[in-house]
Amino acid sequence: MVGGEKELRIRFVPGCCQLVEEDVDIPSRRVLITGATGLLGRAVFKEFNQNNWNAVGCGYRRAQPKFEQINLLDSVAVHEIIRDFQPHVIVHCAAERRPDVVESQPDAASQLNVAASGNLAKEAAGIGAFLIYISTDYVFDGTNPPYKETDIPNPLNLYGKTKLEGEKAVLENNDGAAVLRIPVLYGEVERLEESAVTVMFDKVQFSNKSANMDHWQQRFPTNVKDVATVCRQLAEKRMLDPSVKGTFHWSGNEQMTKYEMACAIADAFNLPSSHLRPITDCPVMGALRPRNAQLDCSKLEMLGIGQRTPFRAGIKESLWPFLVDKRWRQTVFH
Ligand SMILES: NC(=O)c1ccc[n+]([C@@H]2O[C@H](COP(=O)([O-])OP(=O)(O)OC[C@H]3O[C@@H](n4cnc5c(N)ncnc54)[C@H](OP(=O)(O)O)[C@@H]3O)[C@@H](O)[C@H]2O)c1
Prior knowledge:
Elements: E1 6-13, E2 16-23, E3 30-34, H1 39-49, E4 54-59, E5 68-69, H2 75-85, E6 89-92, H3 99-104, H4 106-127, E7 130-136, H5 158-173, E8 178-182, E9 185-186, H6 201-205, E10 211-214, E11 222-223, H7 224-240, E12 246-249, H8 258-268, E13 276-279, H9 298-302, H10 311-319, H11 326-333
Parallel strand pairs: 3-4, 3-6, 4-5, 6-7, 7-8, 8-12, 9-11, 10-13
Antiparallel strand pairs: 1-2
Helix pairs in contact: 1-7, 2-4, 4-5, 8-10
Keywords: NADP, One-carbon metabolism
Family: Belongs to the dTDP-4-dehydrorhamnose reductase family. MAT2B subfamily.
Pathway: Amino-acid biosynthesis; S-adenosyl-L-methionine biosynthesis; S-adenosyl-L-methionine from L-methionine: step 1/1
């Protein structure tokens, strides 16, 4: 059973050892996290788990052994896990979030980002669970920042379009749900390629080769731990106040291009940055991106919700396991 409240334990008494079923002290608030194997989902799982919630995470290809393996396109499996676990809150992090993959596989991306999100919202409504659907700043075209929740979206690429359709599918099926829009993420990664921020690290640390870096698109790199905290705070607020619902924005507040992030990473590790070259032209390759989709976060701030880790501290914590040159490691940490 998912999130069961009994556990088998081995009890040793003089002369024998017994297998006994014992009640375990499980927190009464239950949260289900989709995409718990992904960059954001891992942080969300940890945040709830460490703050007195009974958290169950779902993954798909990477689920075993820590998480439940559920294909979100399988509506029967989704119905069963929700019926069995009866979560109070569902944080829906699973998505196809790579813009270039969405352009090349639009049907598969739409199934996950739109249809599966709508279905999850319906299932959540069926048991009265509060659903938080994670969305993106790419729903905006980036021509008139900062964006409030009430501003009209106009996504430039298919990824942004599927996420916006996902928002609509969620709110149509569940009018008590929340949509949380966030910008580019970084944090503890399994591989540097997992985040558009951490992927720059090798270009920064291998300073024998010059590297072109985008200096056109304005970004607001946001730590997954901060988003995870915002999700938990939002869930806890909602447990006390049913009027907490609808669309919200959360973002880091340090505006940087990729070139500026790369320089900040170099600075955080005392590495050289003279080999990094800023490219100020609009990128011509890949899916279109908004120039500046800065999110106005005042709605959440007014609710007393939020957390922001300074970029240099957050990126240093995330990247140090990938530092190649041990001499720098000594400079930075000893
Ligand atoms: N990353 C960013 O910079 C960024 C920026 C703005 C918004 N967002 C949004 O934040 C959310 C989380 O993004 P992320 O970067 O954490 O994504 P991610 O690391 O790419 O993780 C995607 C997750 O989706 C799961 N998944 C994929 N197909 C599935 C299926 N058919 N059934 C069930 N689960 C499936 C994956 O599970 P397996 O790996 O186990 O298969 C994985 O856990 C997304 O909604 C994304 O749109 C991300």
